[in-house]
Amino acid sequence: MINLSDLPNWESPWRSTGSVTLLRVSSSALKQLPGSCQVEKVAKAHVAMYPEARDWATRKDPRAVFLLGAVRAVLLLPNTPAELDNVIAAELGETATEPSIAAAKMMVRNALNAVEDFAADDLTEDLVMTPSNDFVCISNDQNRRLELTSWGIYYQSQDKSVRELRLFCYRDADLARDRNQLIAAVNILLNGAITDGPLARWSYPHQTIPTDPQNRVRVRQIGCLDGSAATLFDGDAASAAAFVGGISTVVQDFLADPTFTPGNNCVECKYRISCPEIPKQPGFLGLPTSGTISKSLSRAMLSAYQRCNYQYFLTYVLKLPKKAFESNAAIARGNAVHEWISTAHERQIACSSDDLPQAGLGEIATKLGWTQDYLAQARNWISSHIQVCPFQHPDTHLLSEQTKTVWDSDADVVITTRADELGSRAGRTVWREIKTTSNLQQLSDDEYLILYPQVAFAVGIQAAVAGIVELEILTPESGKIISFDAADPTVQLAATRALAINFDQLHHDQEFAASPGIACLTCPVSAWCDKRVSEPATTEVLVDGLAVDLVTGEIISSKPVAIDALTKALALVEPVDESDDLPF
Q1: What is d(CA 472, CA 461) in angstroms, rounded to the nearest whole number?
Q2: Environment class of residue 435 by beta-carbon count within 10 Å: exposed (0-12), middle (13-18) or buried (19+)?
Q3: 3-state DSSP: the chain helix, strand, coil percent, rounded to 5?
Q4: Model-level pTM?
Q5: Lowest pLDDT segment from 5-9, 279-283, 463-467
Q6: What is the DSSP secondary structure assignment for residue 273, as one 8-state letter?
Q7: Domain ranges of the chain
Q8: Is 332 exposed, middle or buried (0-12, 13-18, 19+ CB in 10 A)?
């Protein structure tokens, strides 16, 4: 049991009503994930507290359905139904699309196979495990009640001496869960009791029924995409007690001094209207309406939309599971250049030719553990950077990879990007974006803002502090800087126009037309797509004078072309990796 007097009292950072006496902490909330907002997690754990300002609800597309919910529902049935596909479709609901249904069917079948394998293993021990109601671990004192929960399917042996929780992930079930999450799950099995059914209201406490003591607890995991299955914990009561000995510290750390982390997840946060940390800038995107759903936008999302509207829909609206990210030569080169520059700039001094000797690796590449071959792919672009390194200017201080988020509350869009370099120069804020290319046509400043919308985003952010935004473009031959004075109203207007051009169609799109072809080659959700091309070409001419090669990741341009064609070409050759996390 957890001594509640040892747990810190949390004070809401916004005006709230309700009760602080009931805490419900899920094991998934205890996962330590970079970029997750701890304040939101702690606020949600206080299930009977409500923010006074609740005038902005997240609007979701009704076609987005919960795939793992269907998996869980089927596995809870006493027998696998003969009309399995119909049951899956019914569980997903009438609004589910064919791609969602296809994904759910595969996940259910893989999960059923894993369950059969588990049952076969259990029979070797004369064990028969059957599903039970959920377990909850409750700690009480005169002031508060703490409930620890974990989402999955609970099982018990016939004599109730063995308890088990089966968790779900997309792939690689044998990879250990976050330790805090696993400690919580084992603790629930060891010290919890069976609930008497679902909650009537989320803000009500769980009711439990008398529960027999256990001799053994297990946590197993099923990979619903790849069919993997693994046992994460299996031990008797004594070993389980030893494993969960730190549960009090885990919960204390979770509740103590949570930090705000604004990001794309803010779009689904019910506290965002009251949150003091997410910058609210009505009209930031220059869009005329709030669209039909709340949404978040990032470089990866816009890139997906520019490649294929339907790919964006499946990935970011339906949120279907994605396959592993596939890189190409251009992406690998760009990543290497950014890694080298970021490491070099940790010194806060100008990069020089001494850092990139003709023979040998040099200080930076050696520090990174590179080989000569790995350096060779990026050498010419790094040499071009040395020509225009921002630390050549006196009184320059920059940090790499700084995340910035804005909520355009008029459009109901949360925009997040990561500045390549952000800091100051001679007392003025400087934001620098770095892009590598092999051959890019000469563009006007306004066209650069359209081609690289993160630069336009940076101008919008920097306008509030009268800062500077610099676009550093590196080719194998040279580097050049395009500078934007964010204090200039003309530049601000051009940036807002560029953002509107980039986002207007996406923001108002409800049909999401497919563009089958070369985009299918690297599509992360092609497994579920009902409009894909089975054998797409690796090169494609987009318009006269412009082609892309997805093997090399190069844009092949024989003459100047329109900026919209160039934007699509860039999206095709430079997909952005946003890997799936474990869903629970």
Answers
A1: 18
A2: buried
A3: 35, 20, 40
A4: 0.91
A5: 5-9
A6: T
A7: 1-56+127-269, 295-508, 518-573
A8: middle
Which residues have CB under 8 Å from 69's CB, separation 6+? Answer: 91
Q: What is the DSSP string of 454-504?
A: HHHHHHHHHGGGT-EEEEEEE-SS-EEEEEEETT-HHHHHHHHHHHHHHHH
Q: At what angle do helices 247-255 and 179-191 cross, to 10 degrees?
A: 120
- Cα 357 from Cα 172, distance rounded (Å): 42
Q: What backbone phi and psi angles, to 5 degrees, belong to 373? A: -65, -40
Which helix (H) or strand (E) is 540 found in, with range? strand 539-543
Give the Cα separation of 524 and 326 in Å (integer): 9
**Contact between 111 and 105 (Cβ < 8 Å):** no
Residues near 213 by Cβ (< 8 Å), separated by ≥ 6?
237
- The answer on pLDDT for 387 being more than 80 is yes
CB 389 within 8 A of CB 403: no
Q: Apex CA 443: angle with CA 447 and CA 437, to 5°?
A: 105
Q: Is the dihedral of CA 331, 333, 336, 341 positive or negative?
A: negative
CA distance linking residue 345 with residue 106, whole number of Å = 47
What is the Cα 346 distance to its own chain's centre?
A: 27
Res 552 pLDDT > 80 = no
Residue 432 CB contacts under 8 Å (≥ 6 apart), including other chains: 390, 398, 419, 420, 421, 422, 469, 470, 471, 472
Burial of 315 (C-beta count, 10 Å sphere; 0-12/13-18/19+): buried
CB atoms within 10 A of CB 210: 6
Say how many CA atoms lie within 13 Å of 352 toward its Cβ: 7
d(CA 431, CA 459) in angstroms, rounded, equals 9
At 306, the amino acid letter reads Q
Out of 3.90.320.10, 1.20.120.80, 3.40.50.360, 3.40.50.720, which CATH number does the structure's domain 295-508 have?
A: 3.90.320.10
Residue with tokens 């799950």: 185
pLDDT in tens, 260-276: 999 989 999 989 999 99
Is residue 112 a contact partner of residue 75, using CB atoms and an 8 Å limit?
yes
Query: Which has the closest alpha carbon to 284: 459, 527, 486?
Result: 459
Cβ atoms of 466 and 428 closer than 8 Å: yes
Cβ atoms of 483 and 470 within 8 Å: the answer is: yes
275-299 tens-digit pLDDT: 999 999 999 999 999 999 999 998 8
Quote the pLDDT of residue 309: 96
The residue among 466, 415, 458, 409 whose CA lies nearest residue 283 is: 409
Tens of pLDDT, residue by residue over 500-516, are 999 999 999 999 999 99
Return the closest-CA partner of residue 196 out of 185, 206, 181. 206
Tokens standing for residue 300: 């990866």
